[in-house]
TrEMBL record:
UniProt protein name: NAD(P)-dependent oxidoreductase
Pfam families the UniProt entry points to: NmrA (PF05368)
Highest taxon above the source species: Bacteria
InterPro entries, alphabetized: NAD(P)-bd_dom_sf, NmrA-like, NmrA-type_oxidoreductase
Entries under Gene3D superfamilies matching the protein: NAD(P)-binding Rossmann-like Domain (3.40.50.720), UDP-galactose 4-epimerase, domain 1 (3.90.25.10)
Amino acid sequence: MKIAVTGATGQLGSLVVEQLKKRVASENLVALVRSPEKAAKLGIEARAFDYNQPEGLSDALNGIDRLVLISGSEIGQRARQHANVIEAAKKAGVQWIVYTSLLHADTSSLNLAGEHIATEKALKESGIAHTVLRNGWYTENYTASIEGALGAGAFVGSAGNGKIASATRADYAEAAAVAVTDERHKGKVYELAGDKAYTLTDLAAEISKQSGKDLPYNNLPEAEYANILKQVGLPDMFAGAIASWDTGASKGDLFDDSRQLSQLIGRPTTPLADAVKAALK
């Protein structure tokens, strides 16, 4: 049985590979990456794999039984890219796909949801057995801003008092490894999120506590937050997207209290305090 992981050198993909190596012999794992030479550190076979070059995808999937399809990073291109992969998997005889989707993709107001729903539809229509892991927010999406926030003297955003049930990439990576190695998860759709939700006010308080610096949370209108992100160098489109996702958080798009993630991985999800501590290091 060979298991392949797309985007295996990415932030999530590399963690999925490490989790799989704890469960599966390395010779039965394949990294599907744009640049195989960059995958040497993973210690497994690497094959060239570019979502945008459909003509070579089925050959790269030759001999693969199970595929962890990690959603691409190019927003606006992903439905097409994922469709390329699914079609290639069908041609290559892949028996099972585990896909990383978006929390409550079918009801979410986030602009990311459409591409994930399109991919879920393509999976259903492919006839390939599949599992959908609807991943919630990565805690790192927020903790990556800690250094800048401390420098600026405030944590800013547009999430209001919205509850955010995030988990770390390591938590979601373990879920993917657990799912693809146990056939009981075939055909399931999981809503994955952290055990304990928090607001950005809570996050700012935790940063203040651990850093010893008073860091308030300043809630801003979406357009104002987007302008600040542009001023610190983010491209206009990406800045607008990030601000809109925060507004989505204020509407409950990043909240779930079903604890399906901790049930899947058999342990509590990483506490916010631990994620903040790691970021401050």
